[in-house]
């Protein structure tokens, strides 16, 4: 929607000139000795990259079935349920039962991700990127790796209560039978395992989105990102 006083682009030439000028101005901030322009900075470029990457990732994960329906994001059954040598009951040997249980745990992971999303947003907003140049010319997931290192286990800590609550509310025959089938397993232990897996899935999804943006920054229609990522490797 046009803003009051906005300049109308009455010809394709003027439109292209404006867009091209915006890209060149953004790219200039990455040239040696030029760390910023009015309204733009290297920090802002990294912030926009992470913001868009995380928004795209959570948009996928927080769809109905966002975890279970995508093989890359599906939460596996925790080790307590037969992975890694645990002695399991007959009920857990049923493929159909295990599929039902895995679906229920992925629904709980969805609840955890809802809690994690605003924490990621706040961390991006408040982060200080002390070496934004290195992040911009780093690997395909350099910004994601930086942010994950900054947050550490914060998402896991925040998600455990949400996932535990979801499992308790939804504790039906599938969940309760699974817990009874393995000695020493309780909702809290399962919630912690699911939270750790969900943390890995969230960062993997953000990293994939970052790599996709870096591979084709023009698809963002953001002049700053186009300029920053277009020549970032030459810094």
- The secondary structure category is mainly alpha
Helix content: 55-70%
What's the quaternary structure here?
Answer: single chain
How many discrete structural domains?
Answer: 1
Shape: elongated
Tell me what the structure shows:
The chain is an all-alpha fold and 235 residues long. It has one domain (12-234). It has nine helices and two strands, in the order H-E-E-H-H-H-H-H-H-H-H. It has helices at residues 12-28, 42-61, 95-126, 132-136, 142-151, 154-169, 173-181, 187-215, 223-231, and strands at residues 36-37, 40-41. A two-stranded antiparallel sheet has the order 1-2. A hairpin with a 2-residue loop joins strand 1 (36-37) and strand 2. Helix 3 packs across helix 6 (154-169) and helix 3 packs across helix 8 (187-215). The longest helix has 32 residues, at 95-126. The radius of gyration is 22 Å and the shape is elongated. The protein starts with 11 loop residues before the first helix and ends with a helix. The relative contact order is 0.18. Residues 1-39 and 83-87 have low confidence and may be disordered.
């Amino acid at each position: 929607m046009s803003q009051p006083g906005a300049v109308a682009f009455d010809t394709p030439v003027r439109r292209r000139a404006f867009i091209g000028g915006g890209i060149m101005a953004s790219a200039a901030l990455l040239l040696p000795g030029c760390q910023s322009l009015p309204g733009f900075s290297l920090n802002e470029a990294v912030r926009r990259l992470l913001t868009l990457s995380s928004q795209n990732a959570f948009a996928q994960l927080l769809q109905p079935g966002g975890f279970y329906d995508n093989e890359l994001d599906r939460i596996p059954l925790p080790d307590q349920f037969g992975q890694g040598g645990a002695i399991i009951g007959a009920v857990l040997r049923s493929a159909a039962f295990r599929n039902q249980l895995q679906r229920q745990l992925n629904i709980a992971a969805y609840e955890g991700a809802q809690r994690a999303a605003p924490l990621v947003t706040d961390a991006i907003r408040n982060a200080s990127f002390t070496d934004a140049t290195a992040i911009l010319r780093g690997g395909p997931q350099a910004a994601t790796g930086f942010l994950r290192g900054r947050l550490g286990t914060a998402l896991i800590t925040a998600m455990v209560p949400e996932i535990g609550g979801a499992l308790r509310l939804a504790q039906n025959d599938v969940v309760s039978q699974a817990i009874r089938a393995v000695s020493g397993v309780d909702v809290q232990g399962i919630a912690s395992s699911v939270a750790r897996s969900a943390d890995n899935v969230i960062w993997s999804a953000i990293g994939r989105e970052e790599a996709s943006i870096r591979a084709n920054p023009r698809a963002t229609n953001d002049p700053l990102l186009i300029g920053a990522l277009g020549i970032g490797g030459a810094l």
